[in-house]
Design a protein that fits this description.
By secondary structure, the protein is α+β, with helices and mostly antiparallel strands. It folds into two domains: 25-64 and 164-208, formyl-coa transferase, domain 3 (2-Layer Sandwich), CATH 3.30.1540; 70-161, Ribosomal Protein S8, Chain: A, domain 1, CATH 3.30.1370.100. 38% of the residues lie in helices and 23% in strands. The chain has seven helices and seven strands; from the N terminus they run βββαβααββαααβα. It has helices spanning 48-65, 84-92, 94-100, 126-142, 149-161, 171-181, 202-208, and strands spanning 25-30, 34-39, 42-47, 71-81, 103-108, 111-118, 197-201. The strands form two sheets. Strands 1-2-3-7 form a four-stranded antiparallel β-sheet. A hairpin with a 2-residue loop joins β5 (103-108) and β6. α1 (48-65) crosses α5 and α2 (84-92) crosses α4. It starts with 24 loop residues before the first strand and ends in a 5-residue tail after the last helix. The model is unreliable at 1-8 and 11-15 (pLDDT under 50).
Length: 213
């Protein structure tokens, strides 16, 4: 019998809904953080990090559900020494970490060897990533919110991999992001529950400039 495919649950604050593609006419990028688009309803402001984080979360979730997560084997295992709290968090989430592409085993007292990582972390220090994931998992567990470890890990994975705020994007990157976002409802949020879009209605623009239309 094959392995069970992990499932990912998501709470109400992290809304994910899609609709037929809409036209997003890019006007520019503000403060290397927000995309500004013209739409039928007015001006649409997009938080590039929140938007990319949502898209990556859904991508990684599909990969887990289809057991197709790209993995990179490390030629030399990276050793990491964990605190007692981090060790406990690791032991309680080894199965979920494995489904994400992490291969980790114990190499000593509170010392662990990282042998593989998700491909998206190929150029990032795996020790730093693992520590942050375990710290977030421990915090959520202490707060009684750690019942869905896989969801927590996916949120952290998407956050680490997403385009950052204050990052200047090339035209091709902007167009790719907008193309992927064009099916999201304006009420969509990032996996943390933060809004992706802010709409400034055309009527409000007219009112500010004292125009009748």
């Amino acid at each position: 019998m094959g392995e069970d495919i992990p499932s990912v649950r998501e709470g109400a604050p992290s809304e994910w809904t899609a609709e037929p593609r809409r036209s997003l006419h890019l006007l520019g990028q503000a403060f290397d953080t927000f995309l500004i688009c013209e739409v039928d309803e007015g001006l649409l402001f997009i938080d590039q990090h929140a938007a990319h984080e949502r898209l990556l979360f859904e991508k990684f979730k599909r990969q887990i559900e289809t057991q197709s997560v790209p993995v990179v084997k490390l030629l030399i295992p990276r050793l990491v020494e964990l605190s007692a709290e981090e060790s406990l968090a690791l032991e309680s989430s080894l199965g979920e970490l494995h489904s994400l592409g992490f291969e980790i085993d114990q190499a000593g007292q509170k010392v662990y060897a990282i042998r593989s990582v998700p491909a998206v972390f190929d150029q990032i220090d795996p020790q730093e990533v693992l520590r942050e994931i375990l710290q977030e998992t421990a915090v959520l567990s202490q707060g009684g919110k750690g019942t869905d470890i896989l969801h927590t890990l996916l949120v952290t994975l998407a956050c680490h991999s997403a385009i950052r705020g204050r990052a200047s994007l090339q035209q091709e990157e902007l167009e790719q992001l907008l193309g992927d976002l064009s099916v999201l409802r304006l009420s969509a949020t990032c996996p943390h529950g933060r809004p992706i879009f802010f709409l400034l209605p055309r009527e409000e623009l007219n009112r500010q400039f004292k125009r009748s239309r």
